[in-house]
């Protein structure tokens, strides 16, 4: 389980904190003040690019807070090992690998959204316009929340020290690879939960904030099972409502 004292203990890492706060702050600024988009009935390269940028920025803003314990612990261990190896490995390289994985997810869900748009399953306001699609997706999200794969990925995300001790790789390239590996578990934990935005509205800032808080709570509270079960039951309930209501 994440120990929040790991964060406050590393306040002497100004560069790492500046990177986290800058990336998170700029992403939320974009979502709050610049995220406006008028979509044409048929997407071209411009629309695809803009939607990809939107998803990428959203994922940075939503996921960086929950990744902070892992990043700060990486920075601490890297400084400790530097005393023995004399090689400095910036935590920004770990962040780079982590965000590369989420950028890949952003590309994938952009293509999914494009196909849903082409099939007229989503409205121009970027939310589901089909109750059957909404119901099926909600039920799938609910089931995944309590699946073994979700729990396995969540356990890695909740245990920064265990992850770093078992996955550590030396050097700058090793830091990027570790970020990619952590991003792999993080995406595995949250990819369907993020797809909930396809139902409630991709640009709905209230839901974006709510999902960000849920993801953070899953990784830091001592009772994540209650959160997972709650989300599962809510998604199953609303999914059935959309299908039979």
UniProtKB/TrEMBL annotation:
It comes from the Bacteria. Keywords: Membrane, Transmembrane, Transmembrane helix. The keyword rRNA processing does not apply. The chain crosses the membrane at residues 12-32, 52-74, 95-116, 128-146, 185-214, 226-244. It holds the Pfam family PpoB2. This is Metal-binding integral membrane protein-like protein. The lineage of its organism: Bacteria, Pseudomonadati, Pseudomonadota, Gammaproteobacteria, Alteromonadales.
